[in-house]
Amino acid sequence: QVQLVESGGGLVQPGGSLKLSCVASGRIFSNDAMGWYRQAPGKQRELVAVITSGGTTRYGGSAKGRFTISRDDAENTVYLQMNSLTPEDTAVYSCNSWEGDKWYYSPQYWGQGTQVTVSS
Length: 120
Fold this sequence. Notes:
Elements: E1 3-7, E2 10-12, E3 18-25, E4 33-39, E5 46-51, E6 57-59, E7 67-72, E8 77-82, E9 91-98, E10 109-110, E11 114-118
Parallel strand pairs: 2-11
Antiparallel strand pairs: 1-3, 3-8, 4-5, 4-9, 5-6, 7-8, 9-10, 9-11
């Protein structure tokens, strides 16, 4: 059974940082793209960042220059370092994976999500 388990969310002040982690299990993910979506209340789900099996990264517009995605295939883990957070970053962040690096399609696997709240 494939599982993606996120951690690292929480409450942070504007301008602060958080690092999200996602541990994957149930299949070999080293050939898959991994990434993060987020969804804020009343808003559409948004692709935040993707990292392919070869390490190529893609970022959504709101994440560019502030967020960094990385992966450790030995640990089956993907990370999202988030800096300079603003209240607009408040959302549930979900970890995702795409078989065969096909991140331009819908993800095959989803985590349950972790809440990130940016507020003073």
